Amino acid sequence: MTKRSKKNNKRGASAKEEPMHPPLGRETLHSVWALICIGLGVVLTLAGFSQAGVAGDVVYSFFDMLFGWGYALIPGGFFLIAIMFLLHKEERHLVGPVLWGIGLFVLASLGLLDILSGGEAGVIGGGISYIQNWLGTVASSIIFLIIAIIGIVLYLDRPLRIPRRQLKEETPNYEIPKIEEPAPAVIPTEAGIQEQEDGFRVKHGMTKKTGIARVKPVGYNAPPFDLLTRSVEKPSAGDLKASANIIKRTLDSFGIPVDIADMVVGPKVTRFSIRPAEGVKLSRITALNQDLALALSAHPIRIEAPIPGKPFVGIEVPNRSAAIVHLGTLISYPEFMDSGAMGFCLGKDVTGEPIFTNIEKMPHLLIAGATGSGKSIMLHSVLISLLYKNSPHMLKFILIDPKRVELSAYNGLPHLIAPVVTQGKKALSVFRWAISEMDRRYEELLQGGARDIQSYNKKHPDTAIPNIVIVVDEMADLMAAYGRDVENAIVRLAQMARATGIHLILSTQRPSVEVITGLIKANITSRVALQVASQIDSRTILDTSGAEKLLGGGDLLFISAQLSKPKRIQGAYITEEEIKSVTDYIKEHNEADEVTDEELSFEQTTGDGGLTSVLGGRASDSSDVFDEFAETAEDDELLQDAIETVREAQKASASLLQRRLKVGYARAARLLDLMEAKQIIGPGDGAKPREVFISKEQ
Question: The pTM is what?
Answer without folding.
Answer: 0.63
